[in-house]
Amino acid sequence: MMSLYVNLERWKPFFLSVLRIVAALLFLESGLSKLFGFPAAGPPLAGLVVLAAIIEVFGGLLAAGRVVHRDWQRSSCPAKWPSPISWRTPRSPSTQR
Question: What is the pTM of this model?
Fold first, then answer.
């Protein structure tokens, strides 16, 4: 039973990333359908529906951007997530403070 929890903890970041991406795309799709009729035409725009559509579009873009930025940051930080290819040059002991 313990190995099941270990496996679930190992896959947790991947599934959370997928969940965040899908949620961001759903917000983006909903807002775009209200504003521009893409991929399918939404209800006629009036009052708060316009504000909701704008919030959905920008919220979806921000959520997707956050996931991409977090994954990029995770892959470029060698101290926290070691990778086989390091883009930073190692410092010699004499130049460290």
Answer: 0.62
Name the maximum alpha-carbon separation found in the chain.
Answer: 68
CB atoms within 10 A of CB 38: 11
Residues in Cβ contact with 87 at an 8 Å cutoff, skipping those fewer than 6 apart: 76
Given the structure tokens 């990778």, which residue do they identify? 83
Cα-based torsion angle of the residue sequence 32, 34, 36, 41 in order, rounded to the nearest 10 degrees = 110
The whole-angstrom separation of Cα 9 and Cα 16 is 11
pLDDT in tens, 18-30: 888 899 999 999 8
Long-range contacts made by residues 32-35, C-beta under 8 angstroms, separation at least 24? 32/57
Q: Distance (Å, rounded) from C-alpha 83 to C-alpha 74?
A: 10
Q: How far apart are CA 19 and CA 64, in angstroms?
A: 11
